[in-house]
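Summary of Year 1 activities. Much of the first year was spent building the evaluation harness for sequence design. The harness presents a backbone, in tokenized form, and records the residue chosen at every position. We chose the following record to illustrate the format because it has been used consistently in internal testing since the harness was completed.
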């Protein structure tokens, strides 16, 4: 009986540590994303298929793979059992999309672009149990000041 209580205590401590570190890393990542999004706000993004500009553009792309933490995995399995939205995974997908767009803007910044036209996002679920998500972003970097 004492061994079972000890094992449950160890599980609770490790689970709490995992939750704490996962929450800390997610909060830190969201703060970095917000900071980069504010800094790169001068680069506009559009998804129009046809853009009228005289200067040629540069094809740019970025991708990111983000995984959930163990706590979100357990929570998602419980939610999946009862059905409904998997809100714990929605935050992972949203972070991945935001990160892919920030990386795309950083790539555009390297080319001196002020606009990304024809942006597209492709999302792929990775891993045996869907624990990771990859977002691939691509578009055409152009300098609107030269248009």
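For this record, the design step produced the sequence shown next.
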């Amino acid at each position: 009986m004492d061994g079972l209580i000890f094992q449950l205590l160890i599980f609770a401590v490790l689970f709490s540590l995992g939750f704490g570190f996962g929450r800390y890393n997610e909060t830190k990542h969201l703060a970095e994303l917000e900071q980069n999004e504010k800094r790169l706000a001068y680069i506009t993004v559009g998804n129009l298929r046809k853009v009228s500009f005289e200067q040629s553009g540069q094809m740019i792309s970025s991708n990111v793979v983000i995984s959930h933490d163990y706590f979100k995995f357990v929570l998602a399995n419980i939610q999946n059992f009862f059905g409904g939205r998997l809100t714990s995974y929605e935050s992972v997908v949203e972070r991945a999309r935001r990160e892919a767009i920030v990386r795309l803007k950083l790539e555009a910044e390297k080319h001196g672009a002020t606009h990304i036209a024809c942006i597209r996002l492709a999302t792929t679920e990775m891993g045996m149990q869907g624990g990771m998500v990859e977002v691939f972003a691509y578009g055409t970097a152009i300098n609107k000041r030269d248009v």
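The beta strands are 44-45, 58-67, 115-126, 132-142. Quantitative recovery figures across the full test set are reported in Table 2.
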